[in-house]
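User: Hi! I'm working on a homework problem where we have to compare a predicted structure to a textbook description. Could you give me the structure for the chain below?
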Amino acid sequence: MGEGPDAIQVGAWNVGESKGRKKKDSEAEESGCWIKFRFMRSCISSNARSKVDGSLSGTSSQYAESKSTNDTSRDQPVVPVVSSSTSSPAESTPSTPNVAEELKVASQLRKFSFNELKQATRNFRPESLLGEGGFGCVFKGWVNENGTAPVKPGTGLSVAVKTLNHDGLQGHKEWLAEVNYLGDLLHPNLVKLFGYCIEDDQRLLVYEFMPRGSLENHLFRRSLPLPWPTRMKIALGAAKGLAFLHEEAERPVIYRDFKTSNILLDADYNAKLSDFGLAKDGPEGDKTHVSTRVMGTYGYAAPEYVMTGHLTAKSDVFSFGVVLLEMLTGRRSMDKNRPNGEHNLVEWARPHLGERRRFYRLIDPRLEGRFSIKGSQKAIQLASQCLSRDPKARPLMSEVVETLKLLPNLKDMASSSSYFQAMQSERVGSNPNARRGTSRAQLGFLSKNGLPTRNLSIRNGPHASPFQDGYPHQSPKPHVNVRQPQK
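Assistant: Happy to help. Predicted C-alpha cells:
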C-alpha cells in the first residue's frame, strides 16, 4: 500500500509468492490436461482422491466449456496468516470441527452426499473447473431442481460447487461461517446457497451458478470496457447487498471482504455478494465496534480497522468506496505495474476527488466519453465520502443506495458535450504520445459504429486480448492478515 495513514503490510507475503513461483516452475514441465489434472487434485482431500482418480482417467471433453463463464479468482494465492496484537482468542485458535455444536443449518438448505456432488460435477473433471479462491476450487455441476440427485449436464439446475482446500488457510471455521450466514440470509443481492456437504473430512458448498462471473473479470480481464450504465447498475446492486447486511438483517452483519472478485453477476448483470467466510456479527446494544483480528484483502481494508482492529459497518463502507473508485477509473486498487505514485488507487485519486472541473482525469479512458457527466460527478463525490479518513463522516449504505438509484439512467453523455471535448483536447495536448502524432489506431483503438474494438494485431494496445501473452495483473490477495508497518 502507498505511504500515509492508509499504509498496511501483509505478513509473510513472500512465502505465498515463492510458493506460487515454485508451483509454476514445476508445472512448466507439464502440458495440456495434466496441468489441469494436477491442479484439480489439489482441491480435493487425500481421502477423496482415490474415489476420483479412477474416474478421471477415462474423462472426455464432450461438455468442455470456457472457464471464464464464472470467474472465481482462480489465480488468487493464499498467504499464511500472521498473528496480530488485536487478535481475539476465538479467531487465533486453530479450527477444530465440532459439527454438532457449531453447525446451525437453516431448514431450506439441502444436504448433499459427496458422491452426488462428484457425479454432478462429472467427477470433478478439469473441464468443470471454474476457478479457485482462498477457500478452494469451484466446479460447475447440475443437480435436480428440487432435490440433491445429479442430472445430465445442461439439464436441471446449474450450480457452482465449492470444495474446501485442505492445504489452504481457510478452514472449517470459515466453511461454517458461509453455511450459517448464507443459510440464514436471503436477499436478491446475495448469492443463494442451495446446500452443503459434510462427510468425513469433506466440506463442500453448493451455490447458484452465476453465468457472467465476477466484476473483477469484467473490469480488468476483458478487452471491451463495461458500459457506464452497467457499471452503475452493478454498483447499486452491490450497495443494496451491503445495506441489507448492515441495516435490514435480523442481526447486523459486517461483510469484511468487499472487493471486485467477490461481486458475482447473473445473466442480466445483477450484482450478488459471495464468499462470507470472513463475515462477522456487527456490534449490538451499547457496543460501537467489534474487536477482532485484522483480516481482509490488501488494498481494500479501512485504515482505522488496520490500525486498531476495531471493526464496524463503516469498514465495509470504505471498501465499497475503493470498489466504486475501481469501477469509475478502470484501475485496480493495487497495481505495481503503474508508475511510481500510482500503485495505490486511493492515494493516487485523493487529490483529484475534490476537483469538480477536472473529474474527467479519474474516469476510465476506455469509455471514450460514453458516460454521464452528472452521474460521474455524483459517483466521484460519493466515492470521496465513502473513503473519508474519518469513519463517522462516511455515509450509511442505505444513503449510498439512494444516491446510486438515479445514476444508471442519466443520459447526459460526455461525448456529446462541448465542455468534455474541450477537456479532451487539453488531455491530448498534455499527452506525449499525442504530441508525437501517435494515431488512435497505433494506440490500440479502432472504431466501428462509434464503439471501441480490439486490434488483434497490436499486442500491447489498450484493447489487446489480455490472454495473448498471459495477463500481467494478478488478482488481489484474498483473506490475508494485514497489520501496521513495523517501526
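For your comparison, note the following. The two ends are 16 Å apart (CA to CA). The chain has two domains: 35-208, 215-483. Good luck with the assignment!
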